[in-house]
Design brief:
Blueprint: H1 5-15, H2 20-27, H3 31-38, H4 46-53, H5 60-65, E1 82-83, E2 89-93, E3 104-110, E4 126-133, E5 136-140, E6 143-147, E7 152-156, E8 161-164, E9 171-178
Antiparallel strand pairs: 1-2, 2-3, 3-9, 4-7, 4-9, 5-6, 5-8
Length: about 180
C-alpha cells in the first residue's frame, strides 16, 4: 500500500493547528523542507521524517497508522476504558485511545484504605470530581477534607494534592482534568 506522506503530514500539521513555519521551527528544520515534503517533491528519509514529527510530537508508528477517515468513537463500553491504576486504586480513562483529547475523564475506584501515595501529586491544569459512593479524603496544599456521596472538589492541579479512602467501603469518583494528564 502506498501512503501519501505529504498529504498525511499536511493533515496532521493542520490537525495540530500549526503553520508550516511553526512546525519547521518546532522540529528544527526549514519551512521549505516542510513545504517540499507536503508537496511530495521530496521523499524524506526515516530519520528526517522522525525529526519533523518531533515537532508535533508524534511517533513514526502513529504517523503511518492513524486512520483519519474514521469517525471518532463517541460511546464506550465499560471494558473499553483504559486502566491506569495499580489495583488498590483503579483509574479508568474514558477515550484513552483518542488523540487530541483536551481533557481526561476518569472513573476512579479506591479500595478501603487505598491512596495515591505518600508523595503529593502536582501537574499542570485543573481537576475536579464528584464522589458517587463512599468517602475520599482530599488534600490540596494545606487543606484537607473528607468528602462523601454528592460532594465535589475542584482545584488548580499545580497545588500538591493527594487522595485517600479513609472508609471501609469502596469509594467511587467521576473526575475530569484539563489539559489531560493521562
Amino acid at each position: 500500500m502506498n501512503i501519501d506522506v505529504g498529504a498525511r503530514l499536511k493533515t496532521i500539521r493542520k490537525m495540530h493547528g500549526l503553520s508550516q513555519r511553526e512546525l519547521a521551527k518546532r522540529a528544527g528544520v526549514t519551512n521549505g523542507t516542510i513545504s517540499l515534503i507536503e508537496q511530495n517533491r521530496v521523499s524524506p528519509s526515516v530519520s528526517s521524517l522522525r525529526k519533523v514529527l518531533s515537532g508535533l510530537p508524534m511517533s513514526l508508528g502513529d504517523f503511518f497508522t492513524t486512520d483519519f477517515s474514521a469517525t471518532p468513537k463517541v460511546f464506550f463500553d465499560q471494558d473499553e476504558l483504559t486502566e491506569l491504576g495499580d489495583g488498590e486504586v483503579q483509574l479508568r480513562l474514558v477515550a484513552g485511545q483518542r488523540r487530541e483529547r483536551s481533557m481526561s475523564i476518569m472513573h476512579e475506584v479506591y479500595a478501603p484504605g487505598a491512596d495515591t501515595g505518600e508523595d503529593m501529586l502536582a501537574h499542570d491544569g485543573e481537576e475536579g470530581g464528584v464522589v458517587v459512593q463512599g468517602q475520599i479524603e482530599v488534600t490540596v496544599g494545606g487543606s484537607k477534607r473528607v468528602l462523601g456521596p454528592g460532594e465535589a472538589y475542584y482545584f488548580d492541579s499545580t497545588l500538591p494534592h493527594r487522595f485517600r479512602n479513609p472508609g471501609d467501603e469502596e469509594c467511587v469518583i467521576i473526575s475530569a482534568n484539563a489539559p489531560p494528564s493521562f
